[in-house]
Amino acid sequence: MTKEFLFEQIQQKQSFLCVGLDTDINKIPVHLLELEDPIFEFNKQIVDATKDLAVAYKPNIAFYEAMGAKGWESLEKTIDYIPKEIFTIADAKRGDIGNTSALYARAFFENMDFDSVTVAPYMGSDSVKPFLQFKDKWVILLGVTSNEGGKDFQFLEADGKPLYQHVMATSKAWGSDQNMMYVVGATRPEYLTDIRKTIPDHFLLVPGVGAQGGDLQEVCKYGMNSQCGLLINSTRGIIYASNGVDFAEKAREEALKLQQEMSLLVQSI
């Protein structure tokens, strides 16, 4: 998917919502467990309920890997079911040497046809560039994460700047704003001003809005650019809004609340 097409979808839907599909067999409604593939059925109903409100879906690959071959089957069925005009993110956080990265890229871009994959930058350019060889596919590089342990390394200073700024300044030369995005946690919106000085035109994937305490208005105040430049991810607050038979209906209600707030922000661009 091209950057231009993604922005068109944002304008059409008046939304920059990404719905996380971190589907846990232990959290989905119990009535689904009677079905042959409860994980896919859950995802299917979430997608049906939110596909007119979301511009992206982000399955966290660990939730599927943990279930073995059956989990991979559920994931493949989910990706095949999501409408092609909606951006898909393999939240896999891969990062390894070049040959291995090339195989990870093939797995997600060729075999499963994801639009993007999250990648860890710690091993440097040769672990990231293999993912950038695929036309109209995206690397989403970990930048500033919202977990508590992110402070262990990301904010260590060198030459008067925190490590995450060095990562962004160096890595932006590996690709472009047409094939690279960055993860920036919503619980750290105060850093977005400096981040935008380094990568003004790149899209940012922003997890942590909603259940994790991130504030949408604050993120947009500091992070939005002339082409929106944001994909705001919400997971638990949407997909687990209810654990009853009305789970899809309640998911839609929560997604709609965010979309309506986003609509006003998109109109201001």
UniProtKB/TrEMBL annotation:
Domain of life, source organism: Bacteria
Active site: 93 (proton donor)
Pfam families, A to Z: OMPdecase
Domain Orotidine 5'-phosphate decarboxylase stretches: 16-251
InterPro entries (alphabetical): Aldolase_TIM (IPR013785), OMPdecase_type-2 (IPR011995), OMPdeCOase_dom (IPR001754), RibuloseP-bd_barrel (IPR011060)
Reactions it catalyzes: orotidine 5'-phosphate + H(+) = UMP + CO2
GO biological process, one term: 'de novo' UMP biosynthetic process
Pathway: Pyrimidine metabolism; UMP biosynthesis via de novo pathway; UMP from orotate: step 2/2
EC number(s) given by UniProt: 4.1.1.23
GO molecular function: orotidine-5'-phosphate decarboxylase activity
Swiss-Prot/TrEMBL keywords: Decarboxylase, Lyase, Pyrimidine biosynthesis
Similarity field: Belongs to the OMP decarboxylase family. Type 2 subfamily.
Family annotation (HAMAP family): OMPdecase_type2
Protein name: Orotidine 5'-phosphate decarboxylase
